[in-house]
Write a structure and sequence with these properties.
The structure is a single chain. This protein is α+β, with helices and mostly antiparallel strands. It has one domain. Helices cover 21% and strands 26% of the residues. The protein is built from three helices and seven strands. The longest helix has 11 residues. The chain is globular, with a radius of gyration of 15 Å.
């Protein structure tokens, strides 16, 4: 009898989303990080009021903040470690893209962290509300 390989969190969620007709078209590998070591990263540059989804996704890669669905799931599984200052923000995870052009997000609402999706086509113009996350060690050659 062969032993089944356990599914990654994104594969488990993908099974549920397939029932809704959603499919993952791009997905990064899970990052290695501790939730307590995360920092918020702005999508916007000085003087900008908004950027489109493609620009945001490219910046996420350049800023070493291209987390995906598995990372969002890991953060939710360890939400007691999410810094309090992250509350009131939309944490976005552009490393996973669904065929319906949505990306995963986590937001603090009604006293708890909630998982959801943001359409990439909306653009990102909420200033300090739409933020990427990355490890504080990302710029030091560690991930």
């Amino acid at each position: 009898m062969s032993k089944k390989t356990p599914k990654l969190p994104s594969e488990l969620l993908a099974d549920r989303l397939k029932k809704k007709g959603w499919a993952i078209v791009e997905n990064v590998k899970p990052s290695k990080f501790e939730v307590k070591d995360l920092e918020l990263v702005s999508i916007l540059k000085d003087g900008e009021e908004s950027v489109d989804g493609d620009t945001m996704r490219q910046r996420a890669t350049n800023l070493k903040a291209n987390f995906g669905l598995d990372d969002a799931k890991y953060i939710l599984d360890h939400q007691a470690e999410i810094p309090v200052e992250f509350r009131g923000k939309y944490l976005i995870f552009p490393g996973t893209l669904f065929d319906c052009m949505h990306i995963p997000s986590i937001r603090w609402e009604d006293g708890k962290w909630q998982f959801g999706f943001i359409p990439v086509s909306f653009g990102f113009n909420y200033g300090d509300d739409d933020l990427l996350v990355r490890s504080k060690h990302a710029n030091k050659g560690q991930a």
